[in-house]
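Quick note —
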Amino acid sequence: MYPSRFRYEAPRSLAEAISLLHEGGGEAKVLAGGQSLVPLMKLRFATPELLVDINNIGGLDYHREDADGTLRIGALCRHADLERSALLPGGKQPTMAAAAPLIADPIVRNRGTLVGSLCHADPQGDWASVMVALGGSVVAQGPAAGGPSRWRTSSPGRSRTCWTPTRSPSRPWSRRTGAPRGAAT
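Predicted structure written out below.
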């Protein structure tokens, strides 16, 4: 099946992307890796009027550890980047290091992003469970965005999250180091 018609925009700055998402309201979707969104669009389970492709925005493909041990992961960091990361194995994030090579299959890992998996609450995505186990949070940006938002142990339903057009996640982060502590509160 073919997706329904949509407007496509490829902004070159985060500010432009946020503006487009705000303009599109509830009918706009972000395209990063597309591994969750595109199949939903092909089946017409997702029918956005506006698709905002963030792949041209520089500086969103990082993963790094802050001095306090906080792991920060950009919105365009691919699963494969985490799988191959020298930062995770033997470091302070053994749970993420163990999960990374098990996420989906190699094709999905090369294109898909951790943030995309979280945003779509993909039932086959494993990162949400890892984030919950580590007590991770997601930083949202937008016209009404604030600081870190705690990733919840549940979502409103399959492939649905609590994110809104004016408060969209830009990067997840985990302040926890070492072994997982169970579900986040």
